[in-house]
Amino acid sequence: MILTKSLLTDRSRPARGSWILCLLALFAGTGRADDRPHVLWIIAEDASPHLGCYGETTIRTPQLDRLADTSVRFAQAFVTNPVCSSSRSAMVTGMYSTTLGAHNHRSQRTSGKGGGNQAYYDSFKLPIPSIPALFRQAGYHVTNAGLNKNGKTDY
Prior knowledge:
Largest sheet: none
Order of helices and strands: HHHHHHH
Oligomer: single chain
Shape: globular
Mean pLDDT: 70
Radius of gyration: 25 Å
Low-confidence stretches: 1-19, 21-27
Strand content: under 5%
Structural class: mainly alpha
């Protein structure tokens, strides 16, 4: 369809021009729905099951409870290590942290120390793509935010 100048500016046909603009606006916002599932993966370190959706009554978490009502929620979970970085490594790869060399809170590695954080992170490379990397490759928007809004950069 070609919109001519007279169609858009002719005052004698305002209804037709409005109808066409409304039709264009309607079709501009429509499209094929994404067949991929929406994924929101929340990992909270040291939270334990202290959320309402897990039965906590002292701490109120209404937004997360509402989200959990319509989502997949894991009721039986465990961590392979009791510290954050090695648990994250296991979580994002599906491998034991001892297999990855990420056990002991990654404190036993010496390469990269003294060279700043980036050298330290570069000294630890995962042997397989992480789940966030696989989501990125599949076209998902992936973000990682921490308590101070500075997401972890080590995976």
